[in-house]
Amino acid sequence: WKLRDSLLTLDDDLTDQGFEHADRVEPYLLFKLNRLQATVHVALAQMLTENPEFEQFGDRSKPSDLYHDAQELLSESCQVFRRQIKQKQRQCQELGRLTKKAAKSYMTFARFCLRRMESSAAGPGISVENLEGYVHQYVESVLEAMVLNNREAMAEFPRVLEATAKCSIDSRTRELFM
Distance between CA atoms of 141 and 160, rounded to whole angstroms? Predict the structure, then answer.
């Protein structure tokens, strides 16, 4: 009974500190605390069922109440897991959509830079500095899209190597490969 009272006091202290909020708690820590409390409740319920005279040492809780408390404790910790899993799934879905949009943007910019690089090869009109800027931005955009697992960017990688081989690469572009 003293162990149960101590655990209830600990639970109350943690609740006062915001421990019951799913976004502020490590779910496994809550589960372990609740499981410990539930184990004590179950042990007390079993003890009272087998030896009703022990009721005089406690707070007059019935075994059915103790089993119910244990059920609620374990249910609560499972709910925290459920809420956190759903929250993480939503975040992953949002991140996935953002990643696809970012990769598409990188590749759009890379194609623009590539067209500008190809048009400079066809004739005058782009200075060496501007050409190197396009090469740098093209390489950077393709590599960024590759980091995001964009298949088009991965297919574009040989052209990245070709573009960097044909142009004198400035130090910024060289750093992208390191």
Answer: 10
pLDDT at 175 over 70: no
Give the C-alpha distances (Å, rounded to integers) separating 83 from 33, 121, 143.
18, 57, 36
What is the amino acid identity at position 165? A
Residues sharing a CB contact under 8 Å with residue 173, sequence separation 6 or more, in sequence order: 132, 135, 136, 139, 140, 164
Helices (H), 17-147: 27-50, 63-122, 128-147
DSSP 8-state secondary structure symbol assigned to residue 151: H
Q: Determine the pLDDT at residue 158.
A: 94
Average pLDDT over residues 83-90: 84
Q: Report the alpha-carbon distance of residue 93 to residue 119 in Å, rounded.
A: 39
The percent of residues above 90 in pLDDT, for the chain, comes to 24
CA 101 to chain centre: 19
